[in-house]
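Hi X.,

You mentioned you wanted examples for the new student's onboarding notes, showing what a folding record looks like when two proteins sit in one file. Here is a clean example. The first protein comes first, with its sequence line followed by its structure tokens.
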Amino acid sequence: MIGGGNEEQVGACRDIVVAHAGTHLEGALDRSALRQRMRQARAFVCPSLRESFGLVFIEALFAGLPIVYPKGTAVDGYFDGHDFAIAVDARDPRSIALGMRRAIEEEAQLKASLARWQGSAEARRFQRASIGEAFASGLRMAATAG
């Protein structure tokens, strides 16, 4: 597991994973190291129970990873019809396992589909320039309203 936090948070996480063989806490990585690590993975699986928009899923997509995400939250609705985004019930281990299996078994197809999407106009909406333009447009509209 990759990520940081204060000593108390890291200690709490260490207490949780100690009983699970093969799971360890890597700690924080810089952006370059994280991107390199992500490129070695088959998919990004994060069926969290408390997720708002979920920028981490967008980062995974742009790193070339299909995503397994919690249905009803995070990026739900943004990638309907795209096979590289697999929605699962975050409260159902079987649903999560099936999503992970699909990501592994269909890895080549999902990554090829994702690569095509990355170059699309649809993908540009999640890039810095488009986000900045949308934000500025919203500010202009708010400033000129009533």
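Then the second protein repeats the pattern, sequence line and then tokens:
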Amino acid sequence: MPLAVVEQIALVLKSRLNVMIDDSTTFPVNVSEVVRPTRFGDFTPLDRQIVLVQGQLETVPELSHPGNPPAQAYRITFQIRGHVINDERAFLAIDETLNQFHADIVKAVAVNTTWQTFGGLSFDAEWKAPEYVSADGGIDGVNVPVAVTFRTNESDPTEVRG
């Protein structure tokens, strides 16, 4: 059974983030894991963990196309949340770690000049403003939203349309 295009995009995004795991040579923030939470969360927060969360799917009528069948345009924003549990005795500022985490996430996802097409599944993607979280002794982090725009057949959301 073919997967919905939005799910295929999520899998490409996760695979790009997975390259950050245990690669401190390319990515200074040594990521411990990348997870997509289940309905009940079902994960334990870890230091240098990425949690990939899918937002609401929205239609983009002005980018849809007529045809037989018509092509329906959608935009989905994925929240890429980087968790950091900072050592209280660390001399490195938490902001420095979060800034680097943000940079590493962008570098891993925007892996080449056509990164925004996600292997032909979408026609555009754009970074939204990162959101820094300071937990004052708990989990600090950065949320890096990326909005991906794509088209499918109006009658079959598993089929990519240009």
